[in-house]
Amino acid sequence: MAAFVRRIPGNCLQYTCMSNPNKSSSYCFSRVFSSTIIVKGFPFSTTDERLAEVFSQFGEITEVKIVKNKDSNKSKGFGFVTFTGESDAQKAKMEMNGQLLDGRALLVDNKSPERRFKDARKRTNQAGG
C-alpha cells in the first residue's frame, strides 16, 4: 500500500492512503524549544550565585536552581539555568559543555520535558494493579 505525506501550514502533516485517496488523516506536531538548560557535574559546593555568575555571560538569566537533597539540603551536583531567550540558552549550552567549573567538567544539555507518571500510577492503582 502506498501513501502520500505532505506538509501543511502550522507544523502539520497530511497522510493520504493511495489505495483510498478519499481517506486521509492530518497529524499536527510541535517542537518545544526551551530557554532552560540542565547543568551537571559541578562541585557540590557551587552556589546559585556562582552558577548565575558563570552563565550570565551568555545572556540575561531569569532563574538558577541547584537541585538539593531534601533531607540534608546539600547539592546533588546538578541544576537548571533559565535564560530570557532560547538562543541564549543554546549559546550557553554550546560554549559551556565540557568546560571546567572549579576543577570539574560540566555537562550542559537542554532541559528534558517533564515526565508525568502520577496519572499512570493512579490508573494502575484504580484498576487494581
From TrEMBL:
<dbReference type="InterPro" id="IPR035979">
    <property type="entry name" value="RBD_domain_sf"/>
</dbReference>
<dbReference type="InterPro" id="IPR052462">
    <property type="entry name" value="SLIRP/GR-RBP-like"/>
</dbReference>
<feature type="domain" description="RRM">
    <location>
        <begin position="35"/>
        <end position="113"/>
    </location>
</feature>
<keyword id="KW-0694">RNA-binding</keyword>
<dbReference type="Pfam" id="PF00076">
    <property type="entry name" value="RRM_1"/>
</dbReference>
<protein>
    <submittedName>
        <fullName>Small RNA-binding protein 11, chloroplastic</fullName>
    </submittedName>
</protein>
<dbReference type="InterPro" id="IPR012677">
    <property type="entry name" value="Nucleotide-bd_a/b_plait_sf"/>
</dbReference>
<dbReference type="InterPro" id="IPR000504">
    <property type="entry name" value="RRM_dom"/>
</dbReference>
